[in-house]
């Protein structure tokens, strides 16, 4: 391990990993390079298709945009495209694992990397909780089709008033199915996941098939009953009722919600050390998966809001509500859709929790978190304590909190992380214009600047209580950095962590 002069004073928080060090870590990695562009696109699709289509679209339509949620997808897609192009440039320039955390450490410095790590806890950890709540909704609906009823008090967040199908109201206590599925998946990650790109491809195929079946069969139902169902689009943009509730303002508010639908695409960048030709393949994986999923999202939103009145979609399982509305003769189709959604959402929970453990592992390896987060189990060769902790956090968040609150906090954290990524691209362009870049953001610097401003703009459309929580979360993260991370950072103390990437068996292979 090479020694460098320790950073002092304010220089500690601006200490950066050099580009040469990052590239050296990449060269010394023993992770197998087995993922080509098709695998990376499927990897992105596998993570993106989840709560965005199956869960949050209904919330956005019912509470804020109505049928105009389709326009919200356009707004969110444009914002995400800017961030995606910035991710593509960074991943082609610094093709290493660690995603935005590593990018921030290399460009803006250690403090920014710490903040990014905190934001990724919201993006990966809380996102897994959101998906788990959606998973619970579909499981409850599917079991109900077979006459198996879970007491509704145990299928929703703590102290939440809900109205049942028979019109009665009750207060939910805890979302037991969401809690249990995250604990089970955390246990699987702890035991280790073997080679799984083929499994991922099968799961992606199932999810895409389910989505296409919903679009085609649901679209057929809409077209054959168009005079009747077209009334669900009248008016297409409901008149504004209050701040952020319908009207054009509601369209932008909904954009911050459906932005959640896109958060999976940057997971491709965590696979930098497993890509065969990262400079070429990773931009294809990021942009390709983003484009495919945007098209699918628009089509699903159109069919969904035509089949069911938008005011009935504020549920964790809106697609289930839509297929149930087709009538008893389509019961087989409804059950197929729900089963496919459950399979798809299960895979997304798994990969999001995996991503979170990967970030914690990297931060602990760098000294910013206690070494217990990087401790590898001697038998299973996984960061088991790290994984179990992530599982417990995700499980209790899914069991206790409302999906809309969880989703909004996730979106805010993700938007802030994306803004930092855009800033990182601009900093690296100025500080290291000599670096070879397999991909460059077009229309530079207009698109990165637009990405920063649009991310910040969507952040301030959410409710004040969510922004307040986000502010307290950041303050807490900053305190932890100055109390622990700043004094234990290996880089700031002059320890260059060269050749210390995880071995191939240290972490489970990626599974979506």
UniProtKB/TrEMBL annotation:
| Gene3D superfamilies named among the record's database cross-references | Amino acid/polyamine transporter I
Matching entries from PANTHER family are given as:
CATIONIC AMINO ACID TRANSPORTER 4, INNER MEMBRANE TRANSPORTER YGJI-RELATED
**What does the UniProt entry say about where the protein is found?**
Membrane
For this UniProt record, the keywords arranged alphabetically read as follows:
Membrane, Transmembrane, Transmembrane helix, Transport
Q: Which domain of life is it from?
A: Bacteria
List residues traversing the bilayer. Answer: 38-56, 68-90, 102-122, 129-150, 170-191, 203-223, 251-272, 284-310, 330-355, 384-403, 409-429, 441-460, 466-487
Name of the protein in its database record? Amino acid transporter
The principal location of this protein is: membrane
The record describes its membrane topology as: Multi-pass membrane protein
**InterPro entries (alphabetical):** AA/rel_permease1
């Amino acid at each position: 391990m090479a020694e460098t002069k320790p950073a002092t004073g304010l220089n500690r928080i601006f200490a950066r990993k050099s580009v040469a060090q990052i590239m050296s870590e990449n060269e010394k990695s023993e992770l197998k390079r087995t993922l080509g562009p098709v695998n990376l696109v499927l990897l992105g699709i596998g993570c993106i298709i989840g709560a965005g289509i199956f869960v949050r679209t209904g919330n956005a339509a019912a509470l804020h945009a109505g049928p105009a949620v389709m326009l919200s997808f356009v707004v969110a897609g444009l914002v995400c495209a800017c961030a995606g192009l910035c991710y593509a440039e960074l991943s082609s320039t610094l093709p290493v694992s660690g995603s935005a955390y590593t990018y921030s450490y290399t460009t803006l410095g250690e403090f920014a990397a710490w903040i990014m790590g905190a934001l990724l806890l919201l993006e990966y950890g809380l996102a897994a909780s959101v998906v788990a709540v959606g998973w619970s909704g579909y499981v409850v609906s599917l079991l109900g089709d077979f006459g198996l009823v879970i007491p509704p008090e145990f299928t929703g967040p703590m102290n939440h008033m809900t109205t049942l199908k028979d019109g009665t109201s009750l207060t939910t206590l805890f979302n037991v199915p969401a809690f249990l599925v995250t604990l089970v998946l955390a246990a699987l990650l702890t035991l280790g996941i073997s080679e799984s790109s083929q499994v991922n491809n099968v799961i992606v195929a199932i999810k895409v098939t389910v989505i296409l079946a919903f679009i085609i069969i649901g679209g057929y139902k809409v077209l054959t009953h168009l005079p009747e169902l077209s009334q669900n689009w009248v008016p297409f943009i409901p008149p504004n009722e209050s701040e952020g509730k319908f009207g054009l303002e509601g369209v932008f508010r909904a954009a911050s919600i459906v932005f959640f639908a896109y958060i999976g695409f940057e997971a491709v960048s965590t696979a930098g050390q497993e890509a065969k030709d990262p400079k070429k393949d990773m931009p294809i994986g990021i942009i390709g998966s983003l484009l495919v999923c945007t098209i699918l999202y628009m089509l699903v939103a159109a069919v969904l809001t035509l089949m069911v009145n938008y005011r009935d979609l504020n549920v964790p399982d809106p697609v289930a509500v839509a297929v149930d509305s087709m009538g008893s003769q389509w019961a087989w189709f409804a059950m197929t859709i729900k089963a496919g959604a459950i399979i798809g959402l299960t895979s997304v929970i798994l990969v999001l929790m995996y991503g979170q453990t990967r970030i914690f592992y990297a931060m602990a390896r760098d000294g910013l978190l206690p070494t217990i987060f990087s401790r590898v189990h001697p038998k299973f060769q996984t960061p088991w304590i790290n994984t179990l902790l992530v599982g417990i956090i995700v499980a209790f968040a899914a069991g206790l909190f409302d999906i809309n609150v969880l989703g909004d906090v996730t979106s805010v954290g993700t938007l802030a992380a994306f803004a930092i990524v855009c800033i990182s691209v601009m900093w690296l362009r100025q500080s290291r214009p000599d670096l070879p870049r397999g991909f460059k953001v077009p229309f530079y610097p207009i698109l990165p600047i637009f990405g920063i401003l649009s991310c910040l703009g969507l952040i301030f459309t959410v409710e004040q209580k969510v922004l307040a929580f986000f502010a307290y979360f950041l303050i807490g993260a900053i305190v932890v950095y100055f109390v622990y991370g700043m004094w234990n950072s290996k880089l700031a103390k002059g320890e260059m962590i060269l050749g210390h990437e995880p071995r191939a068996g240290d972490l489970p292979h990626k599974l979506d």
